[in-house]
Amino acid sequence: MTIIHNLGFPRIGADRELKRAQEAYWAGKNSLDGLLATGQALRARHWAIQAEAGAHWVPVGDFAWYDHILEWTTLLGAVPARFGQADDAPVELDTLFRMARGRAPSGTPAAACEMTKWFDTNYHYIVPELHPDQTYRIARESLFEQVAEAQALGHRARPVIPGPLTWLWLGKGDAYAGGADDAAKLELLPGLLAVYEQVLQRLAAQGVEWVQIDEPILVLDLPPAWREALAGVYARLAEQGLKVLLATYFGSVEHHLDEIRRLPVQGLHVDLVRAPGQQAAVLAALRDDQVLSLGVIDGRNVWRADLDRVHEQVRAAAQRLGGRLWLAPSCSLLHAPIDLGLETALDNELRSWLSFAVQKLDELRLLRGLVDDEADEADQRALAAARQAVRSRAASSRIHRRDVAERLAASGAVRRERTPFGERIAAQQARLGLPRYPTTTIGSFPQTPEIRALRRDWRTGALGDAAYEKAIRQEIERVVRFQEEIGLDVLVHGEPERNDMVEYFGELLAGFAFTAHGWVQSYGSRCVKPPLIYGDVARLAPMTVAWSSYAQSLTDRPVKGMLTGPVTILQWSFVRDDQPREQTCRQIALALRDEVQDLEQAGVTVIQIDEPAFREGLPLRRGDWAAYLDWAVDSFRLSTSGVRDDTQIHTHMCYSEFNDIIEAIAEMDADVITIETSRSNMELLGAFEAFSYPNDIGPGVYDIHSPNVPREDWMVDLMRRAAQRLPAERLWVNPDCGLKTRGWPETRAALQSMVQAARALREAA
Q: What is the pLDDT of residues 70-112, one digit of tens each?
């Protein structure tokens, strides 16, 4: 019988139980024992779901209290010195939390570790900090404890651990300034591998048969030294008494098959959703003593699979491999919502097109029945329903709009080159009259429980439209008056009406649908509920103009109109898979262009179009970059085309590396770009300096993902370092990102310090 299995399961809980338990613990409202009990209950529930669906093993180690890379970093004892970790003491959970967010219920607050995107997803990982004399040891017992938990519940446990090369590749340090591919990091391998060996030995002693070692960097273009390191790494790991499933995902490994085929591993997992064309080459390279795991159910999107098409896709592999064929999702289901069964409000037709984590496991079971020709009567009924859903979606009239197609075809006529930046910025300064080192925020202000309750009551009908609008206006006025009071130069309205920077716009655009429980983890306790883009996108009516116009009417200072950019709306949604992504992105850009023009006509002089996901969408292979950057830049410029020279266009990007795409960022031609730099200590400015970035830039000086309040002198020092790299007259002072997740006391204190820092800089100039 063909084996089905899973690479990882969402950890947050169907009702975001983990998030609630974490945040209660951080706030002192939950005990450590209570938090640990929640985690244990979730693991047991999720293992049971996978076992009942027919998974041969349950993955163990995919659970994480904040991020799976941080879990592994702390297991290795790779804790930066500023967190005060004793060399021979176990790493406590509070130390892990302080590394992630700067503070925890116990321990001294310290600067949090850097955070960035996990490959091309919207999941964030905590970057391992590396230094040349680093030592490693088994410093946490959680992995082994969880294996024992799963075994005690009667499950076959298959541990999941990050591969040593992937962990090193993702790490950074002052001594490794060459970037992610710095070969000097490989000097850390001997000490690192010694701990990997100890981990595998201990797992073998627990009776574990297989271990899943994730090496997603194998889909990248690796430098020679990293490719050459593979053989030595896996020769050592293969000697520890366990069978190794080498797991790759998010792309093809065809370009590394010469190295992979020689590795002494017993199994290989490849992603056939992202890279279906690699199957023949992988089959040809597979040894007779190896199993092949094919990732054929999309772990990163929500659309039901065409099981007949997938069956045809894997038929050749099944005929050749027999029992050596395993079937799985393309990657961990971490990136998918948990259970479609909770979505009772979706209409039946749309719901029939969807598949969440639980349903994807069911799809695997049905696929196994097709492959092994063993589908029972119940399975045949389920297969008939699946086939009908695929036909329904392909033929549905709600997907395609002729007016959108015609407008997109004619969109080239609306594009025109903007006036050179030097002329634009002079016109904008004449209109805005901003001081040197102008201050602003990124857009959102704290989303208090009262604001969330207000929106909830309005949505459920408990609060009428007039009362809701009055309350939102009162909150906008409160935020505007606060910003005037502390002396910010360019204000925002605070976004109290917005639940999420993508969901808000999707609710006002044609072609989008929404779930009630479709949550996925972004980082730590931060969960997002991505919209579903199922059809052609168009703006139905103005989306932000009324709120922005009201805010501007309250003050003589400029108030930014706040929009989410086309690439970010695309990336942070579950996107239709029946047309090229760039076509959907340009549809979104045209809808935003209408909004930009309406804002300008309403007297809004500064408009920010956020693109934090711009780099996230970059293909993992460099050879594919040019095509993506072409349509991504074009979509941004399409959304801003036609504005007046004295209307200032801002964009915002956070938690990304820009060095290798700085030219494309410059081609976006935003008047001002704001970026994250406080957590990375102004490191990202190197790219802008080396490129001689021509427009204004706001390097963030306030890490909004930590509750720590930055000191004025610290922010002044950061900006002085920035002024050594870029002309001071083109620098803005701002936080790293929006403030919706922060509380008012820390926000007030931090922004007051930020404004004082800007004043000190002006006085010293």
A: 999 999 999 999 999 999 999 999 999 999 999 999 999 999 9
Q: Tell me if residue 311 is catalytic.
A: no
pLDDT in tens, 173-211: 988 855 556 889 999 999 999 999 999 999 999 999 999
Residue with tokens 């208090």, as numbered in its chain:
448
**How confident is the model over 705-761, as pLDDT tens digits?**
788 898 999 999 989 988 988 899 999 999 989 999 899 999 999 999 999 999 999
Which residue carries 């002396």 as its tokens?
487
Q: Binding-site residues for L-homocysteine, please?
A: 442-444, 495, 610
**Torsion angles phi and psi, residue 419, rounded to 5:** -60, 145
> Does the structural domain 440-764 have CATH classification 3.20.20.210?
yes
Ramachandran area for residue 444 (φ above 0: left; ψ -120 to 50: alpha; else beta): beta
3-state SS string over 475-527?
HHHHHHHHHHHHCCCEECCECCCCCCCCHHHHCCEEEEECCCCCCEEEECCEE
The alpha carbon dihedral of 214, 23, 653, 298 has a sign of positive
DSSP 8-state secondary structure symbol assigned to residue 734: B
Q: How far apart are CA 185 and CA 485, in angstroms?
A: 49
User: What is the 8-class DSSP label of residue 538?
Assistant: E
> What does the DSSP 8-state code read for residue 439?
B
350 CB-near residues (< 8 Å, 6+ apart):
513, 532, 534
Specify the DSSP class assigned to residue 420.
P
Tell me how far CA of residue 377 lies from CA of 49, 140, 365, 369, in angstroms.
22, 48, 14, 11
C-alpha 395: how far from chain center: 32
- Cα–Cα distances in Å, from 583 out to 577, 578, 634? 11, 11, 11
Report phi then psi at 717, rounded to 5: -65, -40
pLDDT for position 680: 67
pLDDT higher than 70, residue 670? yes
Amino acid letter at 478? R
Nearest to 180 by CA among 121, 248, 116, 269: 116
d(CA 710, CA 733): 13
What are the residues whose beta carbons fall under 8 Å from the beta carbon of 52, sequence distance 6 or more?
A: none
210-214 and 696-699 beta bridge pairing:
unpaired
- Model confidence over 360-404: pLDDT tens digits? 999 999 999 999 998 889 999 999 999 999 999 999 999 999 999
Detail the residues annotated as belonging to a binding site.
16-19, 117, 442-444, 495, 526-527, 572, 610, 616, 652, 654, 676, 737
Same fold across 3-395 and 440-764 = yes
What is the pTM (predicted TM-score) of this model?
0.90
CATH assignment of 3-395, given 3.90.650.10, 3.40.190.10, 3.20.20.190, 3.20.20.210? 3.20.20.210
CA distance 164 to 168: 6
Count Cα atoms within 13 angstroms, Cβ side, for 236: 17
Structure tokens at 528: 């997002």
SS3 labels along 281-329? HHHHHCCCCCEEEEEEECCCCCECCCHHHHHHHHHHHHHHHHHHEEEEE
Least confident range from 102-111, 168-177, 577-586: namely 168-177
Catalytic-role residue among 311, 517, 650, 705? 705
The ranges assigned to domains in the chain are: 3-395, 440-764
For residue 69, what are its two tokens?
């890379």
356 burial (CB, 10 Å; 0-12 / 13-18 / 19+) is buried
The enclosing H or E element of 180 equals: none
Identity of residue 723: A
